[in-house]
Design brief:
The protein has 382 residues and is an alpha/beta fold. The protein contains 13 helices and 15 strands. The protein folds into 2 domains: 23-29 and 280-380, Aspartate Aminotransferase, domain 1, CATH 3.90.1150.10; 37-276, Type I PLP-dependent aspartate aminotransferase-like (Major domain) (Aspartate Aminotransferase, domain 2). The protein starts with 22 loop residues before the first strand and ends with a helix. It binds pyridoxal-5'-phosphate. This is PLP-dependent aminotransferase family protein.
């Protein structure tokens, strides 16, 4: 899926107009698809309001979510799992982040060790700092976690859990093949390491290998958020736990905290979208737009060394060896694109590769994206 495209061509380009604000490309949101999203969301909201009794729905705490919303969650995850889990294993939350804080608190603890990919989602560094646990980085290659490196980390650091993004890893875009997935779960099993699998980027690509949760359901906490495929503000994320007893034990009443809970209105809208096919229609539109934007990347940055995939929201790009990483990032900004240096993702020590990550989805439309890509191209081929 990943493509490395040739060596840099020296081809001077004009800096982008400086009168406009830089195009925001540090984040990796899904692109806007208002023609599909707006009518789907409106009708889902309307239907759910008509179908439910507001007082019974909003006026109470449903700690683990309404049964119908847990059933919808169990259905939603069948986009990746071959069989719908028992709804008793499903937790509804407003975000993957909140699920992660509860899981890390319960499974890793304040003085424990969480193994992470050597470059990963930077929020994990904030959680570790806040909660006091330690992070240990595991080497990556083009298929993600390197088995020998993971085994060594298990032997030396005895982590309680591994946080991993096997599909379109953030930031490297690595995609773990089936054999590699089997190796990783075998090592986790051998060393008694729980797996926190974040599959948030897995709904746009098709024909993916199965999640780790499918290979090792008894040790994997499987997270499927909607922020990268439907909308960041839907605020709906699903967790499938290994056992039916885990949700109550780890979340409510086990945690005694409610901050992670989904707002019932959001759960209801998500349920409606899952059942009426709206979720699939939105995801399909986001997929098409993501593919179109990745084509623009390939065309504009032809000659640069890129790691990307047609349905990936971000691009992992080599910076010319004769340029300082921070200078290159500044140059992109000056020319009109805000991009993120690799150092942002290096949260457990080691050295950062000479790369940047940029997202294609936050630019409001293709014209704005083109302006951002031209700025990056201008910095690269100057
Ligand atoms: C890997 C990864 N997981 C989770 C999230 C956030 O998801 P949520 O909004 O559901 O917390 C992000 C957002 O950038 C992400 O990159």
């Amino acid at each position: 899926m990943n493509t490395a495209i040739g060596t840099p061509q020296i081809e001077p380009q004009k800096p982008a107009s400086s009168s406009l604000p830089p195009v925001p490309m540090t984040g990796n949101l899904p692109p806007r698809v208002p023609d599909v999203f707006d009518p789907e969301y409106r009708s889902a909201m309307k239907n759910v309001l008509e179908a439910r009794q507001p007082m019974d729905w909003i006026g109470v705490h449903q700690f683990l979510g309404f049964p119908e919303d847990r059933v919808a969650g169990a259905k939603f995850v069948t986009r990746r799992l071959s069989v719908a889990p028992d709804p008793d294993r499903v937790v509804l939350s407003h975000s993957t982040q909140a699920i992660l804080t509860v899981l890390c608190g319960a499974l890793v603890g304040t003085s424990g060790v969480l193994a992470v990919e050597e470059l990963t989602y930077p929020a994990m560094a904030k959680f570790a700092k806040q909660m006091g646990f330690n992070l240990v980085g595991v080497k990556l290659d083009e298929e993600g976690i390197v088995p020998d490196a993971f085994e060594k980390v298990c032997e030396q650091h005895k982590p309680q859990a591994l946080y991993t993004l096997p599909t379109l890893q953030n930031p490297t875009t690595a995609l773990m093949g089936l054999e590699r997935r089997k190796e990783i779960v075998a090592i986790a099993r051998k060393h008694g390491v729980a797996i926190l699998e974040d599959d948030i980027y897995a709904l746009l690509p098709k024909d993916l290998p199965p999640p780790l949760a499918e290979l090792a359901p008894e040790i994997t906490y499987y997270m499927l958020g909607t922020a990268k495929s439907i909308g960041a503000g839907l605020k709906a994320a699903y967790l499938v736990t290994p056992k039916e007893t885990d949700p109550a034990r780890l979340f409510w009443p086990g945690s005694g905290m409610t901050y992670w809970m989904i707002a019932p209105a959001n759960a209801g809208v998500a349920t409606e979208l899952i059942h009426n096919g709206g979720a699939d229609r939105i995801i399909s539109a986001v997929r098409d737009e993501t593919r179109a934007r990745q084509k623009m990347v390939a065309q504009t940055l032809q000659g640069a060394s890129l790691r990307c995939a047609p349905e990936c929201l971000h691009v992992w790009m080599d910076v010319p060896a004769n340029r300082e990483l921070s200078d290159f990032v500044e140059d992109c900004k000056r020319r009109g694109a805000e991009v993120g240096p690799a150092t942002t993702f290096l949260i457990a020590g080691g050295s950062a590769p000479h790369r940047i990550r940029f997202g294609t989805g936050k630019a409001r439309d293709r014209e704005v994206l083109q302006r951002g890509l031209d700025a990056i191209s201008g910095a690269f081929f100057r």
